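Hey, resending since the last one bounced:
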Amino acid sequence: MTNELYDDTRPCAAAGRCAARTDKGPARTPRVFCDADRTRIHDALKALPGLHYDLHRALGERAATTSNGRPSAKPTPSLPIRIDLADLAHQIRETLLGWEERVRDVAGLPDAPARGVRPGVVLDRAVRILTRRLDALLALAPAAMTRPRADGADGWEYPDLDGADAGLEVLALVHRCRSALGLTRAPQLLSAPCEHCGLALIERLDGAAGMDDAATCTGCGHHYPPAEYAALAARVLHACTQGADR
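The structure tokens again:
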């Protein structure tokens, strides 16, 4: 009888993007996400208020003008130039407020105050609730939530979403923000051959919290976990330094 019969772990819900994945696949964990991805989700939540602020700064405004082209003295609503950024900022608020409502419910907290305050204040409150009760968030059972239609058409759909969906949505929102703001970078290649296939195709991806600590050889598919990649990078740096000293 093997220990597998008593294995109460499961693959990390981050699947192919698991921060602690190995050649065998995502890390196994007794929780929904492995510790490394739980940390990523926590950090992504903390980053969202700042990214939300940056989105609003990037919207831009058009000054209202009169018929002769001069600026109007009448107060008029500013018009977002980047509708896509305005929509993304709205999605951040609605997504986090929806998850906050569910966490408040399972944690026995009072209902959230009315939304008649600045969006940034509301978002900060939601992030405080979600980061302080992150395990409750990630352990949520499936329940219907309101989301824009996946096909891009007008209207809404009501999928059953659970804690794994919450974590993946948070990571996806950060990545979308970074992409929209021009903060994502091209994959980083290590200027050294793969120790398994000999090709110089070892690549790190830009993720929700910056460059991934792990890497993958796109030639043979070998995955370098963070510790293995760090050791390889250190060897490469040492070899370069030794060569420069000669």
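The CA atoms of residues 142 and 161 lie 5 Å apart.

Sorry for the duplicate.
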